[in-house]
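Kindly review these tokens for lecture notes.

. . .
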Amino acid sequence: MEELLLLLKYVFLGTLQGFTEPIPISSSGHVVLAQDLLGLEIRGLSFETLVNFASLLAVLLIYRQDLVQLTTGSLGYLTGRQPERKSDFMFVVYLIIATIPAVIIGLWFGDLIADQLKGVKVIGITLLITGVALWAIRNLKGRKLDQNLNVVDAIIVGLAQAIALVPGISRSGATIVAAMGRGMKQETALKFSFFLYIPISLGSMVLQGSELISDPKLGELWLPYLLAFICSLIASYYSLRWFMGMMQRGNLKAFAYYCFAVGIAVLLFM
């Protein structure tokens, strides 16, 4: 019975992480809250790395055609065969620039952030901050498309992603808020945000993959981890599809309301 209960907890956590990863309500914050409610403490980053990788696979699957187009266009421009594809190459350059702030801050201050900014009360406060940010851009209708981006856009969105290293600050929410604040159309903001997720998630998998492999509990938890991975992959895929529709309809304020409600509930009752 205890083994079944443990499996159900990991299935729930994997599904929760997968569903909340693409949408702007902080997946890490929800997983922390869920662990507290379930009385389940997962030490180390093995589980987080695994389920985040599952979310990455979902992003790659959904954006596979865009990724192929971006890759072939960039190569075509670099080789001189398709000079008209410069915008594809520059989009990649801006993604690289936007990745740098989170990498630097994560390497220098990641442990400090994890040690000093933890606990459910911090999650409650940062969810409220996320809600305020989403509310602030709820009515913005940008005009910038992929080919209209510039270095300043990349730096500002990159800094927003770095801020999301704080638990409870949604990565997708922070980057989409920054992107739309810079005048990007919803589709471009969403695309840039999730393309930024790719190098960050891959880097995390490379850096922390050894911890996953050497996890002493992996032998006894391989089934819960596997189920959590599968659930995260499926939930991430359908959640991102749903969120893309929400973005097209301009319904970001619904996520702001949710962050307000959960943030207040956490501060009052947890």
Q: What stands out?
A: The mean pLDDT is 90. The radius of gyration is 19 Å. The longest helix spans residues 218-249.
